[in-house]
Amino acid sequence: MPPEDLQPELELVRRMKGGDESAFVHLYRRHRDGVFRLALMYSGSHATAADVTQDAFIHFISHPAQYDATRGTLAAWLCGIARNLARKAAGWREQATDPDALADDTALHESRIDHDTPLERVLRGEAAEHVRRAIDSLAPHYRDVLILCELSELSYAEAAHVCGIDIGTVRSRLSRARARLAQILAPYREGAKEAVT
Amino acid sequence: MTQDTLLDLKLDELRSGLSAVHAPDSLEGALVAKFRSRPQRPRLWWMPPLALAATIALASWIVRGPVPANEGIVSLAPTTIDSDPPFLALRPLASISKETGARVVSSEFPRAMLADWGLPVSPERAGEPVRAEMLYSARGEPLAVRLLN
User: Fold this and answer.
1) Min CA distance, A70 vs chain B (Å)?
2) pTM of the entire predicted model
3) Residue A64 CB neighbour total at 10 angstroms
């Protein structure tokens, strides 16, 4: 997350806790797209991402006191909630915590394909959808840090807090995730070369 | 082009694609409705001190019984401005005047004990010690108290 002055946002949170609807709407509009995009990356489904986004903000409405500003930004906290909800929705495959228990899986799981709203259409680009599918094929523990750090732009510390691991593990997993992703995307390297030149 | 550069290029493509993705508009209405319908919790900040004061008052009433209307706390000193505070009678003046061998003892005790004698105690300061001079009968019963702080 880029550094920012948190005071205006904390003031909005304080007003929201006091029942100020406009403060909630302001916070929702500020963070809805970030939460939705993260949920989309985890779930691969437009409909599931919408459900996860709604549930994440319902959690915020019901338990605003759980947000602790000393531990990170509201965006990171909401991303953490959305990440947990999306992983829960994805089932047992996402719950594995032992990296050794999960080999990198290059096959896209059928359950993670959105038949109702093809993501290629959602993402408005074949190239973007191709990268998303490559990320989706990574083992969950690698995909986790890649989505949080590279796409949701959480800091290593925030990602570590969200995943419940230490910062060093975030760094090493991110490094391996990038290496693995580069391998998967390697067949397209020549095409990219031509596009650049 | 290095492997990292290619990867960053690809991730930029995905970020660019994602930047055009937005949460469905329909969510906002549902969430605002949820916000409006959430249970409102009354602010109960005044409950703990009130409960403490009520508990002290009840305990005092149970232990000591109701104070007779005309036997309240009576100052033993004339109402003049003085550097030393006056003694406050804990027994009827008539019985104190009959006591022989009474003595004054300097003491320090929890402020909450004042409630036992029917004296007002601020709940916020109930745990603080208080310095006092006690007038005891020859049998060791407290007859009057003078608070020094």
Assistant:
1) 24
2) 0.60
3) 16
